[in-house]
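User: Hi! I'm working on a homework problem where we have to compare a predicted structure to a textbook description. Could you give me the structure for the chain below?
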Amino acid sequence: MICIYLFILSFSKNIKHLYVLFFLMDQLISFFVAGTTLLLAFLIFTNVNQVNSKVNRWFGSFILCIFLIQFNDLLEKTEFLKTRMPINDFLALTDYIIAPIFYFTVAYFVDPDRKWRTKDNLHFAFAFIMLFLLLVSALINVEQPSTDADKKNAVVIITAFNLIFCFQVITYAIMAYREITTYQKNYFCTLLTWMLST
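Assistant: Happy to help. Predicted structure tokens:
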């Protein structure tokens, strides 16, 4: 596919054609990714083998979040919705729950008998705060920033939320890595003890 893309680019003389071709390829790839992630999430949720259903639910939720992120991106790229709609904002909430869901996927894979604790709900606190802010902003008539100061403030707020998202993803990736390394150490010790006892 990339070879075909480069072949077409080599014959294209107009930059506008390059942009259109790139845009179409980007949409096509987004369609494929969104479709395959939805299919994969469905297959994981059905849990045909009935093995480790908690992990499959968490992993299916993780793949479904990837689908929703891709679907939201696709809605914005194709300009299906000519203006930014509330559906885009609600779909964007998956950005804030994908990291905790990834962590719980790893945690339940490592320890399938793990019980849900009340404090585990706090992992989704930022997403609930964002949901609350979205609901409040839906009730208030918010106008687009008109002055330069308003535009600068909007850029600062967007940058702050992007940094929070990055921090959240990195933190949960480190937490998942620690879960895996702890599991590997315990597994290796158990395996070594078993081998020495026989």
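For your comparison, note the following. The chain is about 80% helix and 0% strand. The longest helix spans residues 148-197. Good luck with the assignment!
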